[in-house]
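Recall from the previous lesson that a structure prediction takes nothing but the amino acid sequence as input. Here we apply that procedure to Pentapeptide repeat-containing protein from Streptomyces endophyticus. The sequence below is the only information supplied.
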Amino acid sequence: MPVPERSTDAEGVRREILDEGAGSAPYVLRDARVTGVLRLDGAEVRRAVRFEACRFDEAVSLEGASTLGVAFTGCVLPGLHASTARFGGRVDLRGSTIGERDGAGSAVDLVHADLAGGIRLDGAHLVAPGRIALEGGGAVARGGVFCENGFVAEGEVGFPGAELPGGLWMRGARIRVGAADVYAFQGDGLSASNVRCQGLRADGRIRLRGARVTDLVSFQDAELGGTGSSLMCVGMRAEAIDLAFARTPAGGVNLRNAYVARLQDDPRTWPATLGLDGLTYDWLGDVAPTRREDVTSRLAWLRRHPVYAPQPYEQLAAHYRRSGHEDEARRVLLVRERRRRGTLGPAGKAWGRLLDGTVGYGYRPWIAGIWLALLTLLGSLVFHAHEPVPNKPGEGAPFNPVAYTLDLLIPIGGLGQREGWHWAEAGVQGLSYALIAVGWILTTTLLAGVTRTLSRN
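The prediction returns the following tokens.
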């Protein structure tokens, strides 16, 4: 922006702004250079103030002031400091360049400011490399915060603990902090109606720990370059979240202990690490065209949680149950048990493999039926080919190889065959003992698996 030919002294501007004789008529200054420090700290300004295409030699200070709407549109100024200020309208900074590369402190300071309107930063360029470009911790902006249409921040943007009933709108914004391990946006404890970050480009981390959002949190088509946790939403509460990034984030996404009513994402941009323990949701978007493929993809999604935790599997199973997909829910819980087995000692792993191979941890009891059918066939063929020896000749029912095999395999009750016959051949007698042992194992694992399933569900 070229330096305006017309210049005016900041002290003279201050006197005009505070001139009670002007009444409620807005103060407007265009195409001027303001020399000196324009300081309105603690002042009660009874009129709207507007600067258009002006250049300020020094930062403007409104700390603790009470005023109507303030606008710096298309201006250049080294900083705007308005902490604890009260605005009866909005703060309009559209198209302005604010801050200094070699300066100190934040470019725009609105800490604990109270605005009846919103904060407009569309097309603004905030310059505070290595520092905080926009500091709005504890601010209340009832009309929302708008950082769109070419907004660029060189430095961190922060709204920790802020209340934004009108939402935070950062669609297409650019935040450059110059390092992937520092925060580009900090919104811990933020309360807002929406957090719209579609198309956001940030080379640092995004943090929304403990944020409360009554509608949508969207990072659709966003590009996140921060390492560690590119996006941290631990303990966040939101009606919906969209994590369909433009490309895979450089770091992980941490959703531990968060709650979202609706979660939408894209498996093509899942990060390598996902923090999912404690995450709860009421609805989960499909990521595959068929239900079978969807549950396979979601199980791969859960494996991106760095360590085994049972809760993400139970939450996913509950989601499928609510949708009426009981088979998919059982599959998720079976995979949970298999992953849990990897955390156990040798004895636990051995027992787990036995439960898995015989009854699928109780989620596939039909496997026991397959074993029973195969062993019944084996025993029937072997016993049919050999001649048994009656324990009491002339008494009891005639020998039946199928009934005899089932009598050995089923430990409860009896078909009257096992007590009536024995074998002279050691190998065949050994098979009968083996079938008795296997029958007890199948029964024990079946009861243990079903009991385990019922107790967990």
